[in-house]
Amino acid sequence: MFTLRAAVVWTVNDFPAYAMVSEWSTKGYMACPLCKEDVTFDWHARKVCYLGHRRWLPWDHEWREKDKEFDGNIERRLRPREWSGDEILEQLNGLDFAPFGKIVSRTRPSTHMNWTHKPMFFELPYWSKLKLRHNLDVMDVKKNVFDTLVGTILDIEGKTKDTIKARLDLERGLWMNRDSDKARMDLAFFSMKPNDKEEFLKFVSSVKFLDGYASNIAHCVNVDGGKFTELKSHDCHVFMQRLLPVGIRHLLPEDVVKPIMLLSRFFSQLTAKTLRKIGMFQLRHDIVQVLCKFEMIFPPAFFTSMMHVMVHLPEEALLAGLVNYRWMYLIERLLGELKKSMSDLIRRRRAMTTTQSSEPPAQPTFAATAPALMDHLAVGPAGSQAPTSSTSSVAQPVSARRRHRPASTTNTTLTNASGSQPGETLPKFRQKVSAFSKWARHRGDVRNSKGFVSGFGKIQGGSFDRLRRSAILSALGLATFSPARTVLFLGAHEATSQGGHPSWDCSSLQLA
Predict the structure, then answer these.
(1) Where is pLDDT greater, at 96 or 461?
(2) Enclosing H/E stretch for 183
(3) What is the domain extent for residue 311?
(4) Which InterPro entries match (predicted)?
(5) Are 400 and 308 within one domain?
């Protein structure tokens, strides 16, 4: 017998969840949870911008004396102070928060700054002694920085920070040009021209990676629209480190390319598998240089809270070590697998609602055998029996042929071979086939929306998994069957009779 004790070392979460865990709001004027009230902010383009990164430069740096290249002021301030856990706890103990469960007013007292509640983690006796309590998620930061940077240099509508409001907040010489009564916003020098943008997108679409290294980014490139679509976090991770420095080298001015390449190298070294202390000190210097150069290039609206928190990433790496154990990729992959398994389970349960399986849904088994299934299938007019055949027929989409449904349906029913038990009517059968078609199309089994199960009828071996084959018959509500003798093809087509009324043939089955 022994006593096992556990301790919470730190938390790993994205930036919105950072506010929920730390109880420091990541919105508003003091959105940075590390700088707190010492953060430098300003109001531009009807949004809060976080500037003043010259404060992290050495005291004798020449950029501190330049005012026209920056915000018009000479920087004499030091970098923001670092708050210890004891100081934060003392500050929280002096604040009066509303009790839990009570509706709190949106307006907080100025003494509360951005604190919303007292974090529950401070109830732990050692929490105030930790130097790093909450990790900034490098995955989330990198994704947002990529969207802001690429959206601005490609001038993507909705993602660029070079907007009309941003131009109006600049000096008079940088305003929009006016032709009579209309205003014309010329393309900024840090944005690609249309021809250069097309060349850049074609370059990205032509790149191919090794299997497993990254997804096919070419599928996310819209050359005609001049933008990227459906880029995942890992796609942005690879794009930032591998493609962006190469693609923009000859398409943008050198003053714009150099800081972007330095930013790419910063993320590449920060997310490496081996970190050295001297390298982290160099990265801390490099990221300040990058942000200061960006302040001389991009408008103030470019500097969101995610652009600002990059300055704190090397500090956290010095305290906690490798980023690979402190970002959300591991958790997101696990959550993705869980969501996928749960969604598959829900679909299976919905598809098997008409069956009467007695086994648990995790590993479904089916009681009826294939010969019993053959006896169960017969489609035709009431009291008749459809002929059986070993050849498969090409399936036709029921959902796509609804417009040919007659006004009054005949008494066509789905019965068993003996005809003693009446089955379902044709409209209900159509609904089930249509429901399965939508389900299979969502799963990717139906590539062609005009085919009922296109690709499924061509299967000649065991390439189609058994569970999905079972879901087909279960969704149609026809029968259950044994995995030992699975059905590879279910032919269902609509044949128009001479009288114009549709009849159904679901008897053609090919057994494995």
Answers:
(1) 96
(2) strand 182-184
(3) 11-177+185-192+252-327
(4) DUF4218 (IPR025452), Transposase_21 (IPR004242)
(5) no
